[in-house]
């Protein structure tokens, strides 16, 4: 099941929330800032111990004060025109989160719109990749079977709905 939700990702009742982090896992603004605020300072400590994460890759941590099981920190690409591997790197973020969630037997996972804020990825193109990766995961695997695209605003949610409709009609 794929769900489009408008709101704060830290308030969702899911097994895993995904954080759009930076390579140093140093915390920041946007969804990263919201997750660190909600999880409490122990999250920054856990991230410091991990040390960092390459673009397109993920690092899991506990969720501390957020009532979910895990946080998967992923580092999306900074948009630099699209010819520097941005689509593949963004797809890799989604793919790796879904693969780890399957290995960890997580039943539900919520994604923010990775790279669509400070990292400036064109929203429509990012949404296309996100939906594509999630669809092909669900064709292969039943776990995690509940996937949430968590958007901060209605305009972004509408892009996901349009893309999901387009995929269903294909
Ligand atoms: N819940 C869900 N979505 C949110 C929330 C929230 N609480 N807050 C913002 N968004 P961004 P990026 C949306 O900038 O582009 C950080 O400083 C937001 O509207 O958070 O991958 C990191 O430390 C947008 O659609 O992530 C990195 O340095 C989407 O989340 C850098 O930003 C992603 O925007 C990562 O940039």
TrEMBL record:
Family matches, as SUPFAM superfamilies: Macro domain-like
One Pfam family of this chain: Macro
Protein name: O-acetyl-ADP-ribose deacetylase (Regulator of RNase III), contains Macro domain
Signal peptide: none
SMART domains recorded: A1pp
Record-level Gene Ontology MF annotations: O-acetyl-ADP-ribose deacetylase activity
Superkingdom in the source lineage: Bacteria
Residue ranges of every copy of the Macro domain listed in the record: 1-168
InterPro entries attached to this UniProt entry: Macro_dom, Macro_dom-like
Taxonomy of the source species: Bacteria, Pseudomonadati, Pseudomonadota, Gammaproteobacteria, Cellvibrionales
Gene3D superfamilies (alphabetical): Leucine Aminopeptidase, subunit E, domain 1 (3.40.220.10)
